[in-house]
Each structure stands twice: as structure tokens, then as C-alpha cells.
Amino acid sequence: MNTVLEAKNINKHFRKPVDFHVLKDISFNVKKGEFASIMGKSGCGKSTLLYILSTMDTDYEGNLYLNEELVTGKDHKELSRIRNEHIGFVFQFHYLLSEFSVIENVMLPAKKLGLKSEEEIIHDAQQKLDMLNIGNLAKKRASRISGGEKQRVAIARALINNPSILMGDEPTGNLDSYNAENVFQIFKKLKEEEGLSLLVVTHDIDFAKRTDRIIVMEDGRILPD
Ligand SMILES: Nc1ncnc2c1ncn2[C@@H]1O[C@H](COP(=O)(O)OP(=O)(O)OP(=O)(O)O)[C@@H](O)[C@H]1O
Question: Which pTM was predicted?
Fold first, then answer.
């Protein structure tokens, strides 16, 4: 099985106000089609790790590989391209542009990547919305849909460039149990039907238990399986 993401001996320090060794020698990988979750107590370093793995934070020691290519050390512009092309990210809050329509929000990362025509991007965005059963909301303003629908739009936006891996930082943390289950089922379907890899930080043990693998963090380290 191909390795989609690999972290090798990742260490990170916050230097201020005092030196704080927040991530301690983190090594693990995510294979193609694997749905992994990260759990651990508040403050153990989950979000810090996810920001490094998604290439948003470059201030760390160690090596990060995406699709078996070393990304550590690449410049800002190159990282932005890699991120746009290979990584989808879903946060606890949807961060949609409320004045824009649903489909316009979904189209944004594809426009930024700039590889396709407007018509192709509209087609792809509608297809993602249809896949998530919210195709009928395409023309609605993002401010006029429910919280669960907003999170599904955020997932469609994260998928628009057909990433190799979808990362989530508590993507169900702000949802009621019905909508949280809905998001879980979407992730499962993406794994099973599209062969997508997923890496999701969660505090929800019932969610984590149903993923392929739980990566447990404690005090900046990953505990052995
Ligand atoms: N910019 C920073 N400077 C110094 N310390 C920081 C900074 N950002 C985060 N920390 C500390 O690093 C530790 C890890 O934070 P992080 O947000 O990664 O934890 P987490 O496991 O995601 O927690 P939660 O589950 O509450 O979201 C915490 O102790 C936090 O206070």
C-alpha cells in the first residue's frame, strides 16, 4: 500500500515565553485509503502536530513526506501549491465566506490552484455537493444554511482539488450527534468509495473507535499501538 503521509522524528519547540518541547520525536505514517484518528488530552499537542502535517507550520525539526516526496525545507510558494493540490483540511468551525454562495465557497481552492477553467470548476464543485447530498443548496448564500450543512459544504470545499489526504481538527466538535454521525459516514464513504486517506483529531471516542487506527498522544509523544 502506498504511503500518503509520513512523519519522521518530528520535534517542535515553542521558544517563548520559555522553551517548551511540545512535540517529541513523532514518527508515524498514513497509508492510502487509511482512516486514522488522533486522540489525546487537551494540550498534548494534537493541533500543533496537525498544523505541521498539513504544511501550514514549517518551524519544526524532522522530516515530513507527502506521497513519498520530502516536503520539509520547501519554500512557501511550493508548500502552498502542495497543500492546495494534496491536502484537504476541515476545521471545527466551517470558515465559509458567508456573503458568498455555497458553490462559490466550494470553488475557491480550485480557483486558487488555477489549473482548470471556470466551467470545469463549477462542474466539479456541483459534483462534490451532489456527492454530499447538498447539491440543492449550491446557489444559496452560505449564511442561510444550517450548521450541519455548513460543515458538509466545508468538506466539499476541502475535496474540490481531489486531495490525497483529508485532515480534520475536531471536524465534528461543533455539531450535534445527528450531524456528527453524518460527517463520520461521509468520511467512511470517502475512504471506501474513493480510496481517500483521512487523519482526524477527535475527542469523540465513539468516532475514533470506528476508524481504522487510533493514534494516541500523550504529553507531545505518540504512545505505542
Ligand atoms: N504559540 C504557542 N506558544 C507557546 N505554547 C503554545 C503555543 N500554541 C500552543 N501552545 C501550547 O502547546 C500545547 C499543545 O497545544 P495544542 O493546541 O497542540 O494541544 P491540543 O492537544 O490540540 O489541545 P486541545 O485538545 O485542547 O485542542 C499546549 O500546552 C498549548 O498551551
Answer: 0.93
